[in-house]
Amino acid sequence: MKRGNYGSGSIEQRGPGRFRLTHYVGGKRHREWINGTRSDANRRLRELTARADAGEHVPSSRTTLEAWVTEWLTLLARGEASGMRRKGRVTPRTRERYQELLASYVLPTLGSCPIQKLTPTQIDHVYIELEQRLSSATVRHVHTALKACLATAVRKGVLVNNPAGRADAPCKVDPEVGRALSVEEVTRLLAGFTGTVYHPIVATAVMTGARLSEILALPWSAVNFAANTITISRAIERTREFGTVIKEPKSWRGRRTISIDPTLTAILKAQHMQHLRLRAGVSEQTVVSLGAVRLPAEALVFPATTARDGRFDFARIRNARALTKEIRARFRKLGFAGLRFHDLRVTHATALLDRGVPVHTVAQRLGNRPDVLLRAYAKHTSGADERTNGVLATLAQSLG
Q: Which of 92, 104, 153, 218 is the Cys-Cys partner for 159 at CB 3.0 to 4.6 Å?
């Protein structure tokens, strides 16, 4: 077979269109096989020797994408278990979602491919196929998971560069539009929930814009009746491995203290009084002083309503999925078919923006970035049209 030298390496042809490359790093011999033309072999050898000279040598590996995904998920889980505070750390639910996306949509096609031979074009073809049967948002999530997975391979010295980073990323789509209720609709909605166990939850969502996951994780210690404020610093998260747990918010959401209307304060005070009576074991009709009664330090504002082992657990997390289903059923009965619980957050944000509250103030209140806030929650309302017409009329008068 023909053999040729190139710089600090050599190329040996071992068959038609098949070459064995040999190069040296720190005096140690490394070999790699390549299929193609001699020009391809020359180009690849130049890359290898250039990386060696630059101190960027990556040892040849036959590790498949499937094997690396398993390793990557293990690294993420280890970070969760140790409480590591590092860039890129994800929650257990996010890790499970990454696993679902890669196992369902990437590994069936590319799982057996050696990770070092994975090309951007191969990834492009996977995205093209997925876009025929999945939403753009889902394909974008697949891209995010794969790119993060391979980025770790680069950081760990398994890859030189990230092929997913050079693939054509699926089109970015704006968040789902959602629905913003008018003041009249909000009034009718809250009136329809009055007297039900869901009224305080729905009222809190409408009047704070908090997410359901944040509302169900809200402890009484975060409610300041005197100052008319609540502090949101955590949320619930459901995972297959750990069940429903309380987690910290994303780094850019952080801890936030927001003011609440006295009307909502009164609603929460009534909820608090019910819990004190439940703690003391007295009925609502009983006249008794509750000043000495204290709730557990971890007591939630909206805990699960069912008792466990005959005792009411004030810190037991409510089932968010069941609660959403029950509330949406009542939405339909009240004439709000298709309304989601998340639309209460949309309503709150839109109402504030519609009344001229600065975008950065609303974003801080909702725990969102301003750009996300404008894309997701600034909905078109008739009230905004009326105010716009008023401004235009004033400008017209000044021009006249």
A: 153
Predicted structure pTM score: 0.69
Q: Give every strand in the sheet of 223-224, ordered side by side.
A: 223-224, 229-232, 256-259
Residue 157 near residue 139, CB atoms below 8 Å: no
**Which three-class secondary structure state does DSSP give residue 37?**
coil
DSSP for 235-291 reads EEEEETTTEEEEEPPPTTT--EEEE--HHHHHHHHHHHHHHHHHHHT--TT-----T
3-state secondary structure of 214: helix
Per-residue three-class SS string for 145-195: HHHHHHHHHHHCCCCCCCHHHHCCCCCCCCCCCCCCCCHHHHHHHHHHHCC
Low-confidence ranges of the chain (pLDDT < 50): 1-5, 81-88, 391, 395, 398, 400
Task: Tell me: do 17 and 115 sit in the same domain.
Answer: no
Calpha distance 16→41 (Å, rounded): 13
211 vs 204: CA distance, rounded Å? 10
Among residues 133, 206, 157, the alpha carbon closest in space to that of 59 is found at 157
Average pLDDT score, the chain = 84
The predicted-structure confidence for 32-78, as pLDDT tens digits, reads as follows 777 889 888 888 788 778 767 666 556 667 889 999 999 999 988 87
Picking from 284, 309, 330, the residue at the C-terminal end of a domain is: 330
Co-location of 39 and 69 in the same domain = no
Which residue type sits at 67? A
Helices (H), 290-369: 320-333, 342-354, 359-366
3-state class of 200 per DSSP?
helix
My answer on whether 88 and 118 are in the same domain is: yes
- Measured from the Cβ of residue 389, the count of other Cβ atoms closer than 10 Å reads 10
Give me the number of domains the chain comprises: 3
